[in-house]
Specification:
Radius of gyration: 18 Å
Number of domains: 1
Number of helices: 3
Largest sheet: 14 strands, antiparallel, barrel
CATH class: Mainly Beta
């Protein structure tokens, strides 16, 4: 009940929860452009939507990483454990430093150890919570360890899934030379059409999904409120999965990126996978992740 009340407050007062937007964890999720809140059926659900573990495989272990990210997770339908590292760019809310006209940018690096618990409220309505121990700090400043938590909910109606997730709900603070910096709360919703049928594997035959941030975050390039559309399709009886997606800034549609990825099933329920995300801006670097999973 507390989780539902918390989400209601966020929906009624969205401007109080301006976030750094969600993303950067999970090969499948990033390959779908970040449209994953309502899919979230593998171990990366501990980040994207904890409630999604209830819709996943009996067992899922993942190890993945990229240039600025690392994720290790193990999940079952009611319990998950995870470790991940992320780097996010934090901009001051007023986007200017002392009237100089320059945007104040800070790189916030965190290492997270989490435990996720899932609970069915009524049939086809699931909630989940990830409690995290977070070690983080602003570049050039001392790090600190604190506790935080995320929460998510998912509603299932046949092949339709609806999800909502809230991250950094305690909004921990970290010290920087110019003063404290808050790890901003993030709230995101998603909808997906995701039929599941054998022999196409636990994630097939396909998924189509849409995600959207509910709140706006300040950034160096202006306000950001991301949205994403993505899809995934499995062939050869679940031996090969292909996915693609696009994400964009709903405040300024010039800020967008396209993603794609592949997963190959190897013997003994082992999956090898990778993804690439290419921003539309020519001066922006491509992002990538590779990983291995054991799923059954």
């Amino acid at each position: 009940m507390r989780i539902l009340i918390f989400f209601t407050v966020f929906l009624v007062l969205p401007r109080l929860a301006a976030p750094q937007t969600v993303g950067g964890v999970g090969v499948r999720a990033e390959g779908m452009g970040g449209a994953f809140v309502a899919v979230a059926d593998d171990a990366s659900a501990v980040y994207w939507n904890p409630a999604g573990l209830a819709t996943g495989a009996t067992f899922d272990f993942q190890l993945s990483g990229g240039k600025d990210s690392l994720f290790v997770g193990v999940a079952m339908p009611v319990l998950g454990m995870s470790f991940y590292r992320t780097h996010t760019v934090q901009a001051s809310p007023d986007r200017q430093n002392g009237g100089s006209g320059k945007v104040q940018i800070r790189l916030l690096a965190t290492s997270n150890v989490g435990v996720t618990v899932v609970q069915t409220v009524v049939p086809n309505v699931v909630i989940g919570t990830t409690a995290r121990l977070v070690r983080g700090g602003i570049e050039g400043s001392p790090s600190r360890t604190t506790a935080d938590f995320d929460a998510g909910a998912m509603v299932l109606a046949g092949n339709i899934r609806l999800g909502i997730t809230g991250r950094n709900l305690k909004a921990p603070e970290y010290q920087a030379p110019e003063g404290p910096v808050t790890m901003r709360r993030q709230v995101r919703v998603g909808a997906a059409f995701a039929p599941r049928a054998l022999p196409t594997g636990v994630h097939g035959p396909f998924s189509l999904a849409f995600d959207a941030d509910l709140v706006t975050a300040p950034s160096a390039a202006g306000d950001v409120r991301m949205a994403a559309i993505g899809g995934e399709y499995w062939i050869a009886q679940g031996r090969l999965g292909a996915r693609a997606g696009v994400r964009w800034n709903a405040v300024d549609t010039g800020h967008r990126a396209i993603s794609g990825g592949l997963t190959l099933r190897l013997p003994r329920s082992v999956f090898a996978e990778g993804q690439v995300t290419k921003p539309a801006r020519e001066d922006a670097e491509s992002e990538w992740q590779v990983g291995v999973r054991i799923t059954f």
